[in-house]
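Per reviewer request, we include the raw input and output of the structure prediction for the construct analysed in the revised manuscript.
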Amino acid sequence: MKITMVGTGYVGLVTGSCFAEVGIDVTCVDIDQQKIENLKKGILPIYEPGLEEMVKRNHEKERLNFSTELSKNLDGVDVVFGAVGTPPDEDGSADLKYVLGVAHEVGQNMKDYLLMVTKSTVPVGTAEKVRTAIQEELDKRGVNIPFDVASNPEFLKEGAAVDDFLKPDRIVVGLDSDKAKNIMEKLYKPFTMNGHPVIFMDIVSAEMTKYAANSMLATKISFMNDIANLCEIVGADVNSVRKGIGSDRRIGPYFIYPGTGYGGSCFPKDVKALIMTADKNGYDMEVLKAVENVNERQKSVLFGKAMNYFDGNLKGKTFAIWGLAFKPQTDDMREAPSLVIIKKLLAAGAKVKAYDPVAIKETRRIMGDAIQLIDDQYETLIDADGLFVVTEWPEFKFPSLKIIDKLLKGKVVFDGRNIYNPEDMTAFGFDYFGIGRNAKRK
């Protein structure tokens, strides 16, 4: 088979590379000339475990190619995937200009039948807009070329995207023709041979499935953060509560870890987009609006603990931050809780020294020289008045408490991921504050 992947961002690059890995001829197209030239050299625009090696391997074997010209990469293609961005518009709805731009260009240049598949996360009804855009261009050309459209939402976790694609929980495909179904069955056969199910449904349901899935996960996170905050007030330990409810198979142990709120490119954008879809259809998504409000509040919880600890005055204080990316195993800083914490600390007159295993470059692009970015986690502690742990990178889970004690001037730790044992921390002389746990002070 031969496919063209439009967009070389997180979704497009992972998807195209994984299809190439199973022997499919893939061309990834992007309008960014520099990005394409870098990809040809094996320089990736994102950090994702295992992806760089896969891109280099398949490009060398000529199964994975890169181009800036969509018009020259439509001949003989079975499927065109649209994996371009859908940034939130001013009102929170998804901006479809790039998605529809791809559809128009396909309609302007296609010569034979092809299946146009939307891989981007898009609102319900987008596939019909894509169909209309392609048909408009065909009508302008005065040609009658058959085509189909489909929705194939992605369910990739940043930091585990390659494994998620190669070993998916499920593959969701929305379509409305037998021909399109046969093509998608053939395309995903290498994955279904290992027992991973393809769930076929109508297009509208597939579009809704993506938003519903991410909104459900976001709801679990915000619910648990709300419970954690109440636990602190009443004197309960949220870790015990989490274990108690997570053992119930109807609830499960996943996405019920309290923290500093969700971030990234998916949850914030998709929750907003689903709320807007409901609003436009005259329905009020009260639960999701509460989820969004709780999440925004949660991003400031650690800062609030610091303000209380220092009696409302952080001016002249210096704080170390461990973890900048919105989650481990990625350099993605979009909607990262760390940015909220940093900006609030700076506004309060404090100084910040920060470390992250992979997100320092991206943080520097965003923050410039406003904070001191350091390449060693322990060096951030020197003369710092306190430590914020914001992202649960593995290397933060078992640090040397002796080194922390020696370097950290102020003996207080604000643990936004509950990765440390409060008894261990207080026994070592630290004032320790987690999320949803009784604060232990000297």
